[in-house]
Amino acid sequence: MTVFAQLPEGIRQLVKENRQDNPAFSDLVRGGGYVPPDNEMLIDAITALSMGKNVLLKGPTGSGKTRFAETLSNLFNQSMFNVNCSVDLDAESLMGFKTLAYEGDKQVIEFVPGPVTNAMKNGTFLYIDEINMAKPETLPLINGVLDYRRTITNPFTEEIITAKHGFGVVAAINEGYVGTVPLNEALKNRFVVIDIPYLQGEQLKRLLQNESRLNDENTIGLFVRLSGDLIQAVAQGKLSEDAASIRALLDACDLSSMVPPKRAIRRAIADKLDEDREKTLVHTMAETLFG
Question: Which residues form the AAA+ ATPase domain (predicted)?
Answer without folding.
Answer: 51-279
